[in-house]
Amino acid sequence: MTSKLLLGKSTELLITSILLDYEREVYLPAVDDHGVDLLVRTRHVMQTERNRPENFEFQELQVKSVSSGGLFAALKCEHPRPNYWFVFFIKDINRIWLVNSMDLVNEASRNISGKNIGLYTYDLKPSGRTPVKHPEHLTTDFSQLP
Prior knowledge:
This protein has one domain: Trna Endonuclease, Chain: A, domain 1 (3-Layer(aba) Sandwich).
């Protein structure tokens, strides 16, 4: 296994453990054919009939990580929707961003040429002037998820 693949899997486990710590139900798809690494059952259910399956919805999470830097390139987001989220993790600064796919397509740069045409680049690289980019998306507990 390459180190990039190991970083991705360990990041998925980290995110899963954080969600479980906050008593969220997490499901792992057997394959990642649709850009979904984790499914999280929503908290918004009718309290009187809380165990009925039709009262639950799922949030879809795509997990992306880098060891350092913070440039996330060649991101696919073909169908942005309210229940589809991106989780970005930069290991060396130990920070996590939770970005809804609808925000991502508005905030990221879209490649208009080259081999990654149509894909997105999201820059979270800290700089001297901007130590934390997109602080509104920083998270530790995923409370923004419904």
